[in-house]
Amino acid sequence: MSEIAEGGGNDQHKGKKRAKKSSTRVDMTPMVDLAFLLLTFFVLTATFSKPKVMSLVYPAKIDPKDPPAERPKINNAITFLLSEDKIYYYTGQFYPESSPGPNGPTQLEETDFGTKGVRKLLATKNEYVLSEKKIYREKLDKEQIADSTYLRHISEAKKNKKALKVLIKTDDKATCKNFIDLVDELKIAEIGVIAPVELMPSEFSLIKSKIK
Q1: How many domains are there within the chain?
Q2: pTM, whole model, 2 decimals?
């Protein structure tokens, strides 16, 4: 709202004509109220961005004193060992030289982040989940299923026994960059179970012999 106050000229000076003076005062109260109403509306209706996190599984610690026969079996799993700028891995159960398995003691394989490295390895080992994702993705693109149904099937596929499980172990010389890059590759490969596990002394000795 505005108000205009006019002040007329002096009638005693009839010979001179003066311009009428006016002053304007704008009432800002309604505009401030409107601003607060709009601010409240946007705060209540806005959707805040949620942090993107990746779930990690922390299994129970294994007592090194327990014989291998009494330790829980690792089925359809791959273990990555990070040391310095190196990435080693082995599949299935770990068998030290003192207690070799059916095919002898465990042997480490070396890989990298190249085109034929970690990504190709994970794609081959986790073929079940990736194939399921491809099938349901095609149905989603054709609008045969809803987004919620697609996400539910992918989540169920990751929990299936056929899905690959990944264990990550590092020594005191492993680089943070390699760990982060490896986790990114696991996310791309749709790995559902990722478990950071403490490095066993026998595995540490195997890494040292591999580096030499």
Answers
A1: 2
A2: 0.67
